Amino acid sequence: MRLLFIHAEDFSYQVRDKAVENPEPLTPDLERGSAKNVLVVFMSVEEGDSEDPSYISYVTDQILDVLNRVKASQIVLYPYAHLSPNLASPSKALGVLLAVYNNLREKSPVPVSRAPFGYYKAFDIKCYGHPLSELSKSLSPTMVTTQAKQQVVSKDYYVVLTPNGEEYDATKYQFKPGEEDLMALVEKEVLRKELEGGGEPRYIDYCRKFGFEWEPMSDAGHMRYGPAATLMMELVEDYAWKLANELGIPVFKIRGTNMFRRGERAIDEHARLFNERMYTIEGDRDELIMRYAACFQQFAMIRDWVLSYKDIPVGMLEVADSYRYEQPGETVLCFRLRRFYMPDLHIFTKDLNNAMEVALKLHEIIFREIRRLGRDYVSLYNVTKQFYDEHRDYLVELARREGKPILVRVMPEQKYYWVLNVEFHIVDELRRPREIATFQFDVGNAQRFGIKYMGENGEVKYPVIIHTAILGSVERYIYALLDTAAITESKGGVPRLPTWVAPIQVRVIPIGKDHLQYANDIASKLEDRMIRVDIDDRFDETLAKRIRDAETFWVPYIIVIGDREVKTGKLSVRARGAQKVVEMGIDELINRIEEEIKGYPRRPLTMPKYLSKRPSGILS
Question: Which CATH number is associated with domain 499-613?
Answer without folding.
Answer: 3.40.50.800
